[in-house]
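Why Sigma-70 family RNA polymerase sigma factor? Reviewers of the renewal asked for a concrete example.
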Amino acid sequence: MGRSEDNLSGGSGDAARVRLTEALVGTGEEDRSAFQRVYALTSAKLFGICFRICGDRQAAEDVLHEVYLTIWKRAGSFQPGRASPITWLATVARNRAIDWRRANPARRTGPFEWADDIADGGIAADDAIIAGESDRRLHLCLDSLDANQRSAIRAAFFDGLTYAELAQRKEVPLGTMKSWVRRGLARLKDCLDDD
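Here is what the prediction returned.
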């Protein structure tokens, strides 16, 4: 088990989920100390998501600030039975970072491969997102997709790339990329619905 997992959970993934769920529910009730716990438990992971998508440390810090403002405002809408807390939080971070990227397309600094070298003391954001039982199912379903569909969906959702960026990266027509993603998402839905 990684160092960050120990810090987050005190040794157990289930305990980590419970602690984070309780803190997030408390945040939804406008409990400032619960909000501080959410921040302490998740800031490294959410910063990693923002940084991977923004590609710029200062931008990622600015986006992360907006992420926590959004969490403070929307925590009351979190439903523990629908999603794991880290998935819900990661979705907020991803969406905010993508909004920033769309508003600042010229500020992209380059490929994100080097972003994995950031020492945030935590496990990778991708690992945090695919952590719980339902997320493992998603991961298995992703692995069952065609390689082109799988890589396009992962790049779109984990790196925040647009259809145009994906098509350029893979050197395929935009229509082909859209087709890969749409078909992949349809197959992914079917796989997840097969429970």
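Residues 1-11, 110-131 have pLDDT under 50 and may be disordered. This is the kind of structural detail the renewal will allow us to pursue systematically.
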